[in-house]
């Protein structure tokens, strides 16, 4: 008989289930780890997809399954089963030759049930680390996520079999230009249903089975489907298919920003979606082998026959990594090989010979021109490979029909033969396939006989008699035991259920001759003898735990009986299966007696204690333990108080606590008890921990600690006690290590630290301080908003700790409040020191962290004070290759520092940055341009701007207008705009017609509001006297473009839309000069006047002011353009066209009338508001309504629009020019007696105050107004 080893199987899909079955056949001890909550692996359909549909974000939330809803097998039914367990046709199942994924999942579930594999699986358990301790010892770390909790586990195995599949980590092909292509991109891993692609044009990349299926599926909803492939002989053509909307092409050549996708055959389409059917990458993130197993270009190497890595064989193996093969038979054969190698029945070559075989395989691939990523592809040598492995384990070769059937199926797929599944005719295979069940039975017998070779054979009747007798002995001993009476009673009931099983076997005695059943029954006999010995002489560990383990061992032995009983009746198998399930699920943690009914509610601890004293209620020690373990809430409460009495009265000691397993019991009850009981439990645990160091060690179990951590989010008193107990336990190094790994623990501790409970806060602070000795804990604390340990590491930690903290800080998504806290805590200075004195890695991590912190103004000042500026500039001038990686974060920090006027202390900074522009990468150029614009934008930077222009800044920036990188071009435009404000005449000298046309093209094509604003603003800075520029703008239909921009811009005001409005309002002024009526008419015909009126209601005071200037200039000519009412019109205008101010016919487009344009009301609203920037321009516009012969009409209209009071308000603004215009208007208004009477009194106080305290230049006009109001003689000295 071969040796038995403990094996971890990672994955419960096709490969994992098959591997587990074969390992069991060889008598190995198997545990299966499965991340999902069921078996089936990739055959489990999950409508969810990755959070990143393309599957390239390493931090994405992933969905394991790659199934789409319509998926059917791409190989026929005979190839979709195992060699000795074929895929059957079932009643009410999927009868098709190529069944759907539901049928395959049913098949795998049945397979797992029939061979007792489900009980071996740890569901919802993800393996996070596999690390070799010794050659035949592997540490497997896992986390189990159930019911919102996370439990970590570490187990040691002799061997590990990796069965994680190869269909969950997408491999994405490179496509030129795809970064800027605007459409939706996803990998076939995340394709589920076709409906989301309705009426779309879809491009698929790939030519395999998934591309074939998905193209047909998505074509049922899409408008067009285009398949791009690297296949060399492909020509552009429409494929014959049901939907008549699928084309094939050569590979994609380029994807463009406008949505176009061009192919290497010269064709192109405008696509909505690209689906990458480009396969998968091997991904083993949990595996730590010190480089002995690597993945490079999708080759897992080195791998002997795709299964064993030579340096680690046979203790590490991989099943199911091959591609282009029939998966089920291949993993079946590989599993048989691994299981027999581990049992010692089959030997592997030595390491040197295995490596020679691998290298020979690589050499042959290279000679035949096979790409490296096809290393694990078996086709067309799959049959040869499988027969080689079968020969190693002494089995006959595969039937020939398997290879033929597989080849025919693959030909149908590669030929894109529609409907091949439903047109499949396997008549020529019928005779061969009809023998499949017979062959499967023979193979099963072969393995069972092999497993049972050399076993001792005893009489079946005598064996059964002995088993029944042993069963009766065990049940009798259990019922009469004086220990753990209730638990032993339940144990005896479970064991007694074996008797009917043995009696049924006696009635079918012939089955006892079957070696597998006989061996399984013998195994049961051994376990029953162990149970008898345990009852007579219990071991040192907790008795309940021993009983529970014994029951589970009996269940495993019975599982062997179930596994071997393939030829017995279904009823008998069901009976065995039911008992086996009861045994495996048995937990001795629930009371088997009815709960007392004399209390309807829960009573307090004090009330119970009083009742105990009053009534003399007492429990004996055995009853206390029973009630602790199995009592209901009231019984538990009573037992807990009794334990307090026993401990306080010194009636029991720590030996009793240990022997009775009180600590595990209390933690078990803590997880589900009522609040009052939980509080007593934690009090007891604290007292146990304070009395005895061994008790602390028992509480250090990660499961217990996880339970305790949950109390940190409960009521205040429980939180306080829980954090106190955790603090007590943290004296143990093991506890400190484990607490930090419990999900959510550190977050809860930080919340307690910042809470109102002073006791809990103080203890949480102490515990956090203890945990911070671990750098990972310090990082978790920082992520929770507690930065003290991180800052301490930056100041005083080792070099590696500093790098770790800085790197983490650079990646955190910090709020401004967090940035401020870090700045105040002194984080800047140690990071600057790291940058100044550290090695390359330290410099890079420090700069990235400083970049993250520098987005807060307060931290920018700290950076400037640190003296880092000179070092950053020096770094940017460095040409040392090792320092090049530092330049990007350095330039980003410079851009932030430049926002502070403090940088102007160094007048040469801007000139140094200018000289670096053409020596830098696009990212650094963008940062430098942002920095230069910030410097130039400072109000006190006029000298800097002048010097920059003298040093050729404008000519240096002009080439950036052709830059394809939008961010860089935008930054250059903003800087040009800023530099052009001081001396616009320089623009005429340095920017020609070509540059103007480039700028106009940017405005029309850019998708960035800020870039449009800068470009329009730059045009607005051209001198109005530059007629050539105006002509260029007219020829380019610039005004139509501007109207379109404003019409399409968002109604929601943002900084970017306000800047755009300001720039547009500024450039329009050049078209409204009152000296050029022809140009004004052109502007009016383009529909600009309504746009100017709209700008009066903008959120930007600057835009309002500029719009008012344009309207004022237009209105100056209105009196001369109006048509007299006495004029002869060929077509008499409507009376609505008569203007009550101008006294004739007015039209917006012909006479630019403010009244007809509806501009007066928003202008008055501006004067009534609190912003004063636009007052002067608005008053200038209103003054045009008071010209010469129309002045009185204008006064009346302003009064009618309730504007007089708003004009009076302006007098108190402090803007002399605005006051001067307001006084001029009021002087005219008060010439009308009605207005003087109605508004004179309200103006008096303002005028008198202005006369006394206002600008002396206004006195003469004020005196005239006061005289009009009869408050001053015309002979006054004011005149």
UniProtKB/TrEMBL annotation:
Keyword set, alphabetical order: FAD, Flavoprotein, Monooxygenase, NADP, Oxidoreductase, Repeat
Cofactor needs: FAD
InterPro entries cross-referenced by the UniProt entry: ARM-like, ARM-type_fold, Armadillo, FAD/NAD-bd_sf, Flavin_mOase, Flavin_mOase-like, U-box_domain_protein
Its EC number(s): 1.-.-.-
Superkingdom: Eukaryota
Pfam families referenced in this protein's UniProt entry, alphabetically: FMO-like
ARM repeats: from-to residues: 826-868
Gene Ontology MF terms: flavin adenine dinucleotide binding; N,N-dimethylaniline monooxygenase activity; NADP binding
Family designation: Belongs to the FMO family.
Name this polypeptide is given: Flavin-containing monooxygenase
Organism: Rhamnella rubrinervis
